[in-house]
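Exam revision sheet. Question 4 asks you to relate a sequence to its structure. Input first:
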Amino acid sequence: MKIAIEARPIKWSYGTGIGNYTYCLIEKLGELDQENEYTFLWTDQHPEAYIPFSRPYSFYALPKDDQREENEIPLWLAQEKADLFHLPQNGFRTPKPQPHTKLIVTIHDLIPYFMPEIVRPSFLKRFLTEMPEIVTRADKIVTVSEFSKNDLINVFQLNPTKINVIPSAPARTYTPQIHTKVVELLYQKYQFKRPYILYTGGLNPRKNVAELISAYAKVYPKLPQGQQLIIMGPEGKHQEQLKLLATALQLQTEVIFPGFVSNEDLPLFYNGADLFVYPSLYEGFGLPPIEAMSCGIPVITSNVSSLPEVAGEAALQINPHDTLELAETIYRVLTDNKLRKSMITNGFKQSQKYTWSENARQMLALYQEVVGEIG
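Answer key, C-alpha cells:
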C-alpha cells in the first residue's frame, strides 16, 4: 500500500493531545511496518527535524491555506498514487472523494456539540459546518474511546460498523523514575523543592481547574506535608483568571503556574508529584491521568464522559461539580499510605493497557482492511 498521513499537527499542535497523538502514531508505524510506503503532508521543506519516521518516505509541503489545500491535496494524493489518506486531526481538510484513495479520519471528541460555550466562535462555526460532511466522506472513522464512539453514533446517526475504537496512549518517556533524582532535577531546573499536587492538561473552562483550586483552598491547611498545587498550562487569559482566583483565596504562594513546559520535562513533573488531579468536565479520552499512572502517581479524576472508561477503578473518581468531595478525596489520598500504594500499583497496571505498539498494530490492520488487502 501507499499510505498518506496528514502529519502537520505534529508542528501545529506541538505539546497538545492531537500533536502528540500524530507524532506517536507515525513513530510506531515506522517501527512496525516494513512493507508499505508512506508519504506525509507537511508544512514546509524540512520535515526531518519533526517527523519521527525511521524509514524512507516522501512528503508534500503545504502551509495552512484553505484554497491551496482544496486544490493541492487531491493532486498530491493522485501524484503519489496513495491508496489511503489518514487525517488524525478530527478530519479537517478532508478532500473530496478521490476515486483511488480511501479516507480514514480520527475524530477525538465532539466537544463543540456538547459544550459550545467554551469553544472559540471561529472554530465552533467550522466544526459544526464541516463535521457532518467529514463523517459522510470518511470510509472509516477512528475514535479514542467507546464514549466518543457513542457520541458519534448519537449525533450523526452513524452505523456503528463505520467506527473503530483505537485509544490514545502515553509516549514512551512516561515511566517511573527515581524520586530523589527527580526532586534534584526539578530543583535545579525550576527551583521547586516542596512536595506538590499536580494538574496538567490545558486551562480552558472545560478542564474545571477553578474547581481544583477551590477544593485545594479547603484542604490545604490540613495537608500532611503542606503540598503546593502546581498547575501546568500555557500563559494566556485562562491562566490569568486562575491566578486571580488563587490570589482571592490567598493562595498566591501555594498555587504555582510554571507556564509552558517541554514534552521532555513533563515526565519529571509527573514523577515528582505526590498526587495527580484531573477534574475535567468532558474528555474524548483524557490522556493525562494515564500518563500519571505510567509514572507511578496516584490519580483522582472525574466520574463523567470517557474518564471512568479510560482510568477504570485504578483512579478515585469524583463528581467534578462537588468541591467538598474533591477536597476530601485529596486529603484521603495524601494521608492514607495503604490507599496510595494500592492506587500506584493498580494505576500502573491500568496504564499498561495503553501502548502505541498495540495502537499502531490496530491502525495498520484497519488500513489493510479499508484498502482491501486482508486475506
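Marking note for examiners. The chain has two domains: 2-169+355-371, 179-351.
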